[in-house]
Design a protein that fits this description.
The complex is a heterotrimer. Helices cover 20% and strands 19% of the residues of chain A. Chain A is an alpha+beta fold. Chain A folds into 3 domains: 97 residues, Ubiquitin-like (UB roll); 113 residues, Alpha-Beta Plaits, CATH 3.30.70.20; 80 residues, no CATH class. In chain A, the strands form 5 sheets. In chain A, strands 2-1-5-3-4 form a 5-stranded mixed beta sheet, with helices on both faces. The two termini of chain A are 38 Å apart. By secondary structure, chain B is α+β, with helices and mostly antiparallel strands. By secondary structure, chain C is α/β, with parallel strands linked by helices. Chain C has 3 domains: 212 residues, Rossmann fold (3-Layer(aba) Sandwich), CATH 3.40.50; 75 residues, Ubiquitin-like (UB roll) (Roll), CATH 3.10.20; 96 residues, Up-down Bundle (de novo design (two linked rop proteins)). In chain C, a hairpin with a 4-residue loop joins strand 3 and strand 4. In chain C, helix 2 packs parallel to helix 6, helix 5 crosses helix 6 and helix 15 runs antiparallel to helix 18. The chains are: A alpha+beta, B alpha+beta, C alpha/beta. Chain C: It catalyses: a quinone + NADH + 5 H(+)(in) = a quinol + NAD(+) + 4 H(+)(out). Chain C: NDH-1 shuttles electrons from NADH, via FMN and iron-sulfur (Fe-S) centers, to quinones in the respiratory chain. Chain C: This is NADH-quinone oxidoreductase subunit F. Chain C: Keywords: 4Fe-4S, Flavoprotein, FMN, Iron, Iron-sulfur, Metal-binding, NAD, Quinone, Translocase.
Chain lengths: 329, 174, 452
């Protein structure tokens, strides 16, 4: 099936979503995704940051779709034409969504462990306004520990439901869920319970913001001062392939290996994540390649440029600002 | 923040209640017993006056689903009380149509008469009241309903509310 | 006097019992449909009738039925949407309370047409009295052989169940309703797939409003063509209108579509005018989700033609000067009603009822409510109106389900038509807390548009 996104045509398997087709092209035309996670079935459709405009439904039925659609949950049709960053309507809508996501967010990035690898931070940088128009008290929750290793800052949560899907699909049971409704919705266990099972730590990796953080790493360091190194070990529970985050000689954090879209390649177990924090526990593979978009790359680690398609003059014009910014960096 | 820290009284479901559950679950195809969750929670609330965490755990056990699935549902819908309420909960419609014909005055009157704020229980444990969204009786407003039968009282006036409250007090005595 | 197809016998004593209902010609459509018609022929009749969904969206019912997937060996479901919660709408409650067998008769015929052997009537949880009424009526119908195994000896089996919800407006959205019926949170599903392909328990499902299902009965009795003769243009048949607010005679009226709005408000056959001798200021014509119109625009279209109670005439003028028939929840506001307070009331409703699944609706409805609350209580700013319009635009069309649009439209339209009243709330803040803006120019005759 052929689908054209922002003027670039790609061949994809039937059943592929627009977002995944865009990811096959790569580069700036990939819509951001806060709630979709390719390894979690049923995720996506909720945050609305990946909205795109379908200007031609398919070869058979060329009518455009009446509304913007969530690209993560809309399948491609043969001959479909999609506009993402080339559509002012999409850019405007995305700005609106980012504003909505931020009005109740505490913006406590300076004290948040997720800062530097936070998708909401990236999104705000890209699409956010300089000032807020929201003049009311922000929604707040008390932070709670769910288990002795994971802390939940509900105030920062954007309700992507990823951690709920993770518990359903990766771990053997689910103790937390979305309670209440509307803007009172929250992640909670309702009755005080510790979320504790072999794979519970993965909720930290899937969380796009700093709502679920690793207590063993809490306030240890800013991520951009740490050195990511790829390593593995023989693990009887998981694949054992991880990223170690070093501060000097010490491993201060262990995470799954995340790809350019922030998704882990494979889920890891809690033993690897929380209990193996000595270099001797691991076989080191080499330095982690870090996306040049990440602030972590500001620390001059080796980086690979994205396979950005920068030959299209229309795209170049549409992304002038961004290109200039990247050139400066 | 929605979190139950204190221990709540354990509950037992009577065989009569369980047989009502069985009848409800029989309405759905094999393996889709979870569909019975909403009606079953209504029955639990009718029996105990509210839906406690231990009661929800029991329901989860009965339906062979996770407790969190019950909590998620019970907290989503507005009709389930997660805290003990008065014996009679006066739920007054507070949406546009009823407000045009004086629902707000009725709520003020109820607050004054009962002497408790929205969501609180009177000292005798008989009454609590709250404003709820549209009850689909806009032509007969102001309206209020009282569970667990959800009997309707339409075209309310201060006098009819007074009478209703004194009738309920008398009913509770007998 | 318009024809009554649904409420003809509403005043007959005992019409809520099987015997009386049957003696008035009830269940004739079941006999006709099951004994003499094929399911396809029934769908064809409903298509011919031009019946449009009575729940709000106005999608042709026959077409919806024809989309139903029919894979071999997979159950199909008909679910009746009785989650009537749209502010201003109370026709379904009325119909089910007084003439429950009409709904059951419609359910039997419709289920037969769709090939469903189990059907559910989903009622909002607050309608417990109606749950009891319907369950009693179902038991009666079953005892007389109209439900259960081998109905009327035709070999068709149907079980009908009533399911109460738990109190959530969002469950009126069909996929949220199905989620709720499956015992989950009422979060609308992301479409596609549509329920016609994968609905209840993943099986093909049709979800129809109570009134749509009831309307199938006269369509089968009289034929689709006859039904289509009633009404005007593509608005065929009769419609139940729930009239509320400051009217002399509020209540449920069955009208032939095409009655002029002015006649509906002022004639003695219908609402009998505005209560207490006051003047009409504004109207919400189809439930809280549709744009509110000032008196002059609801009585006349922008081209100075009389506005009619029909899908087309009410939406004449689009969002600029029109509204929608929606679910037929007709709320009239008199000269003393405060539009700002009412808009805040609606915004509070949508804030309260947002499911919280997708971000624009979850955050935006709360934001709008807070700004409107500030305006109503005298702390507003002149920039608030533009802010509200902008926020409503950011919600509209960007959400999973239509609740976002429904929350945005009343706010945007109130500001469009009543902006000076909003501004007065800012400039005369202290006065605004003690008195109303009044009718102002909202009932003045429209300026006739010069045609070149």
């Amino acid at each position: 099936m052929k689908v054209t996104i922002d003027g670039i045509t790609v061949d994809v398997e039937p059943g592929t979503s627009i977002l995944n087709a865009a990811r096959q092209i790569g580069g700036d035309i990939v819509p951001p995704a806060m709630c979709y996670y390719s390894k979690l079935a049923g995720s996506g459709g909720k945050c609305r940051t990946c909205l795109v405009k379908v200007t031609k439904g398919s070869e058979k039925d060329p009518r455009p779709m009446p509304k913007l659609v969530a690209s993560c949950r809309t399948g491609v049709m043969d001959g479909m034409e999609v506009q993402n960053i080339t559509s002012p309507e999409v850019v405007e809508a995305r700005k609106g969504v980012v504003e909505m996501l931020l009005i109740n967010h505490p913006l406590d990035c300076p004290v948040c462990d997720q800062a530097g690898e936070c998708h909401l931070q990236d999104l705000g940088f890209e699409h956010g306004a300089a000032k807020t128009r929201y003049e009311f008290d922000r929604r707040t929750f008390e932070k709670i520990d769910i288990g002795d290793k994971i802390q939940l800052h509900m105030t920062r949560c954007i309700l992507c439901y990823r951690c709920v899907f993770t518990a359903d699909q990766i771990t053997n049971t689910r103790l937390h869920g979305i309670l209440n409704r509307g803007d009172h919705s929250e992640i909670s266990t309702y009755i005080s319970k510790a979320v504790d099972n072999d794979f519970s730590g993965n909720v930290i990796d899937v969380c796009p913001v700093g709502a679920l953080t690793d207590k063993t790493f809490r306030f240890k360091n800013r991520v951009w001062f740490t050195k990511p190194v790829e390593a593995h070990r023989d693990c009887d529970k998981c694949c054992g392939k991880v990223t170690l985050w070093y501060k000097g000689e010490d491993v201060i954090r262990v995470t799954g290996r995340k790809d350019v879209y922030g998704e882990v390649e494979e889920f890891i177990c809690n033993t690897c994540r929380f209990d193996k924090k000595k270099t001797a526990d691991w076989v080191i593979e080499g330095p982690r390649k870090v996306s040049h978009q990440s602030v972590i790359s500001a620390n001059h680690y080796e980086f690979t440029p994205l396979p950005v398609v920068k030959t299209n003059p229309v795209l170049q014009a549409a992304n002038k600002d961004q290109f200039e910014r990247e050139t400066r960096l | 923040m929605l979190r139950v820290d204190e221990a709540q009284e354990p509950v037992e479901f009577s065989p009569a209640l369980i047989s009502k559950f069985d009848e409800i679950v029989s309405r759905y195809p094999q393996g889709k017993q979870k569909s019975g969750l909403l009606p079953i929670l209504h029955l639990v609330q009718a029996e105990f006056g509210w839906v406690s965490a231990p009661a929800m755990d029991k329901v989860a056990e009965y339906l062979s689903i996770l407790p969190i699935e019950v909590y998620e549902v019970a907290t989503f819908y507005t009709m389930y009380f997660l805290r003990p309420q008065g014996k009679y909960v006066l739920e007054v419609c507070r949406t546009s149509g009823c407000c045009l014909v004086g629902a707000e005055k009725i709520m003020d009157h109820i607050e004054e008469t009962l002497g408790v704020k929205e969501g609180e229980v009177t000292p005798d444990g008989l009454f609590s009241w709250r404003g709820v969204e549209c009850l689909a009786a806009c032509g007969f407003g102001p309206v209020l309903q009282i569970g667990p039968e959800y009997t309707f009282y339409e075209n309310l006036t201060n006098e009819s509310v007074d009478k209703l409250i004194s009738d309920l007090k008398a009913k509770a005595k007998n | 006097m318009g024809r009554k197809l649904l409420l003809e016998h509403i005043n007959v004593p005992g019409i809520n019992t099987f015997d009386v209902y049957r003696s008035k010609g009830g269940y004739a459509s079941v006999e006709k449909a099951l004994k003499t018609m094929s399911p396809e022929a029934i769908v064809e009749e409903v298509k011919k009738s031009g019946l449009r969904g009575r729940g709000g969206a106005g999608f042709p019912t026959g077409m919806k039925w024809s989309f139903l997937a029919k894979p071999e060996g997979v159950a199909r479901y008909l679910v009746c949407n009785g989650d009537e919660s749209e502010p201003g709408t109370f026709k379904d409650r009325y119909l089910m309370t007084y003439i429950p067998h009409l709904l059951i008769e419609g359910m039997i015929v419709s289920s037969f047409a769709l090939g469903a052997s189990t059907s559910y009537i989903y009622l909002r949880g607050e309608m417990m009295p109606q749950v009891r009424i319907l369950e009693r009526a179902i038991a009666e119908a079953k005892a007389k052989g109209f439900l259960g195994k081998n109905i009327l000896g035709t070999g068709y089996d149907l079980e009908l169940y009533v399911q109460p919800g738990g109190g959530a407006y969002i469950c009126g959205e069909e996929t949220a309703l199905l989620e709720s019926l499956e015992g989950k949170r009422g979060n609308p599903r992301i479409k596609p797939p549509f329920p016609a392909i994968a609905g209840l328990y993943g099986c093909p499902t049709v979800v129809n409003n109570v009134e749509s299902i009831a309307a199938v009965v006269p369509i089968i009795n009289e034929g689709g063509d006859e039904y289509a003769k009633i009404g005007i243009g593509r608005s065929t048949g009769t419609k139940l209108i729930s009239a509320g607010g400051n009217l002399k005679k509020p209540g449920v009226y069955e009208i032939e579509l095409g009655v002029p709005v002015e006649e509906f408000i002022y004639s003695d056959e219908y609402c009998g005018g505005i209560a207490n001798g006051k003047r009409l200021k504004a109207v919400v014509a189809g439930g809280s989700s549709v744009p509110i119109l000032p008196a002059n625009l609801i009585l006349k279209t922008i081209n100075n033609e009389a506005r009619l109670m029909s899908y087309e005439s009410l939406s004449d003028g689009g969002f600029v000067s029109g509204t929608m028939l929606g679910s037929g929840g007709f709320i009239a506001y008199d000269e003393d009603a405060c539009i700002v307070r009412n808009t805040w009331n609606f915004a509070r409703f949508y804030h309260h009822e947002s499911c919280g699944q997708c971000s624009p609706c979850r955050e935006g409805t709360g934001w709008m409510e807070k700004v409107l609350h500030r305006l109503e209580y005298g702390h507003g700013k002149m920039s608030d109106m533009d802010l509200l319009v902008d926020v409503s635009k950011k919600i509209e069309g960007n959400t999973i389900c239509p609740l976002g649009d429904a929350a945005a439209w009343p706010v945007a339209s109130a500001i469009r038509h009543f902006r000076d009243e909003f501004e007065w709330h800012v400039t005369n803040a202290s006065e605004a807390t003690s008195r109303n803006y009044g009718i102002a120019h909202y009932a003045d005759p429209l300026k006739v548009v010069e045609t070149a």
